[in-house]
Amino acid sequence: MLIGGIQINDLSEESMRKRIALLTSELQELFQSQFMEGFLKKSFENDYDVCVFTTLLKEPESALKAVGEAGIFSLINFDAFDAVVVMGDMLRASDIMIKIERALIRNFKGKVLFIEKESTKFPYIRMDHYEPMKMMV
């Protein structure tokens, strides 16, 4: 059977590309858009698909908006991914980072990487913002 020109039997576990879930916020900002450009380029070069889960604002102005913004992350089916990358510094709404970390601990068996935010359970990296600023000044 064909669906969109693809044989259903072609969608076996072995023929599917690996997937990365990227959790972030405010993709319209310069840092996030530059990160995304490089991240997507390297991911595609290495045969990974990327699904981006993002909030519109990293710091919503009210508690109700924070709850609404964070709702996107409760929709993630972690079983569908091989890896998860969390742009921690970009997600500042209430206790969202704690909830994401707990969800990953409970529901995910793959690789996890936190960027710009320390995690007690998963590896993390912080980018060097000092040297580029020093060169500019």
What does this structure look like?
This protein has about 140 residues and is of the alpha/beta class. It contains 4 helices and 7 strands; from the N terminus they run E-E-E-H-E-H-E-H-E-E-H. The protein has helices spanning about 30-45, 65-70, 95-105, 130-135; strands spanning about 1-5, 5, 20-25, 50-55, 85, 110-115, 125. The model is unreliable at about 1-10 (pLDDT under 50).
Largest sheet: 5 strands, parallel
**Strand segment tally:** 7
Give the strand order of the largest sheet, numbering strands 1, 2, ... along the chain. Answer: 4-3-5-6-7
CA radius of gyration is 17 Å
- Secondary-structure element sequence? EEEHEHEHEEH
Structural class: alpha/beta
Number of distinct helices:
4
Strand content: 15-25%
Unreliable residue runs: 1-12
The whole-number mean of residue pLDDT values reads 78
Summarize the amount of helix as a percent range. Answer: 25-40%
Shape: globular
- Give the termini separation: 61 Å
Summarize this structure as a short list of keywords or feature phrases.
137 residues; alpha/beta; 5-stranded parallel β-sheet; two-stranded antiparallel sheet; 4 helices; 7 strands; globular; disordered N terminus
